Amino acid sequence: MIKQLVSAIALTLGVPLLSLAAAPADDALVARGAYLAKAGDCVACHSAPKGKPFAGGLPMNTPMGRIYTTNITPDPETGIGKWTEEDFEKAVRQGVSKDGHNLYPAMPYPSYAKVRDDDVKALYAYFMKGVAPVNQANRPSDIPFPLNMRWPLKFWNMVFLDKGVYHDKDGHDVAWNRGAYLIQGLGHCSSCHTPRGIAFQEKALDESGSAWLTGGVLDGWFASNLTGEQNVGLGRWSDADLTQFLKTGANAHATAFGSMTDVINHSTQGMNDQDIAAMSAYLKSLPPAGGTHAPAYAYDPKATTALLAHPANDAGAKVYTAYCMHCHGVDGKAFAPLLAPLAGNPNLLEKDASSLINVTLNGTQDLVIQGIPAAYPMPKYAPVLSDQQIADVLTFIRAGWNNGAPAVAPSDVAKLRKSTQAAQ
Ligand code: HEC
Ligand code: HEC
Ligand code: HEC
């Protein structure tokens, strides 16, 4: 009797019975997909600055030229509204679009290849039912013919794409495996943090490779070494330090800037404590790799105290006193975690100075934690300081406080000034 009544009401309302029964399960799937999309940071790449979420249009540099991300909203005409789950799976895990053309690996499908079937299903449900459709046509790439031909990517995939989802590894607990799955798969941390080879391929796709997460340059930023290395890596960070960084973008050692800001703003700060703890546990298990095998960093105030007493003697100290000291402190310790310390900061100790030059020239987009932008963001010095002055001040802070990192040449500053100018 009740059943008949429900059917009658459903019929009058024009609601198919099936959807009445399926609605709660569907909502849960869409919600899980929304969370996974956060873990994958899809929004960071698939939205243009000030553009609608997931409507695409963000320019991305590849070795061959500039491409634009695509509309992945469920708009049937310009987005992926007509895509089946199979179409979606092929794009996300195999790098092949609905019409069969290969995607450039700027889309991190080499990492997403590890995402499990049930998670792909949830992501698909979210993109079909949880994302607002936006009618916005895709923009063709700026890569000229014949370099824009995509068939060579098929061979790239044959050589470099490691098909097959993540399988739990024996000898590790549930948290470690969950962390490995997130870091290697949806988190695509290695797309920035693992150095790339001459064909733009990541030199390792998991911890079995010696280059795994040892740091790499992409788009003018050096993404830090995330292994247990004690100077340039995370060796001096506790589990709690790492968790704090992923949740809030700052801790006693460093502050997020450059391309890491997007990751904190859109992805890791919204992940649950259990997943953050799992990712930290996995990263903290990585043995030291990369770096220079120098003894562990120890703070030494001597050099700077002397230099700052007579700044005229050192060109770098002079710039530091005038432009940097009121924020980063006379002792290089600043006011962590509010303001980044420079003494002992792994990014300062790193041989590759790209990130330091870039942040000094161009500042960084704001870190936004729970809706609140950073209070004292790093200013842009490109209009104020010459290449020589920036080289001087960076050389000074890379040597000061026992940081022991090599000098920065004015020519390196000039190069980055030129290559980042277009984006500013
Ligand atoms: C690092 C940047 C980046 C991230 C993160 C990213 N994408 Fe992409 N994605 C791209 C680029 C670039 C393309 C277009 C590549 C091309 O044109 O060859 C693309 C293409 C796609 C396509 C194919 C669209 C089409 O019309 O062919 C789909 C589907 C897609 N991405 C889904 C996702 C999902 C889902 C996520 C999150 C789990 C995601 N992407 C995260 C950069 C990214
Ligand atoms: C789009 C590129 C990009 C991606 C993707 C990325 N990172 Fe980063 N990351 C960077 C850059 C650049 C830095 C250096 C600047 C800084 O310290 O914030 C960095 C710094 C870090 C640091 C601080 C290290 C230090 O010594 O200061 C941690 C920890 C980190 N990333 C973890 C992760 C994890 C975990 C993921 C994946 C969930 C990830 N990153 C994904 C670019 C990226
Ligand atoms: C208004 C305060 C302020 C001033 C002045 C300032 N900085 Fe910064 N700096 C920051 C903040 C804040 C960060 C962390 C990134 C962010 O949130 O913007 C930062 C980050 C950095 C970093 C990256 C450190 C890391 O976390 O790994 C370097 C290097 C740096 N600053 C160098 C300089 C130099 C050199 C000068 C002077 C020419 C300078 N800063 C002046 C506030 C400042």
From TrEMBL:
Keyword Iron listed: yes
Q: Which UniProt keywords apply?
A: Cell membrane, Heme, Iron, Membrane, Metal-binding, Repeat, Signal
> Carries keyword Ribonucleoprotein?
no
Q: Which GO terms describe its cellular component?
A: plasma membrane
Q: Which Pfam families match?
A: Cytochrom_C (PF00034)
The entry marks the following residues as binding heme c 3, namely C324, C327, H328
The protein's location, in the record's own words, is: Cell membrane
Principal cellular location given in the protein's record: membrane
Any idea which positions bind heme c 2? C189, C192, H193
Query: What's a single GO MF annotation on this record?
Result: iron ion binding
Q: What is this protein called?
A: Cytochrome c, class I
| Taxonomic source organism | Caballeronia sordidicola (Burkholderia sordidicola)
Species classification: Bacteria, Pseudomonadati, Pseudomonadota, Betaproteobacteria, Burkholderiales
Can you give the residue ranges of the Cytochrome c domain?
28-131, 174-287, 311-401
**What Gene3D superfamilies does the record tag this protein with?**
Cytochrome c-like domain
Q: Which residues bind heme c 1?
A: C42, C45, H46
Q: What cofactor does this chain's UniProt record say it requires? A: heme c
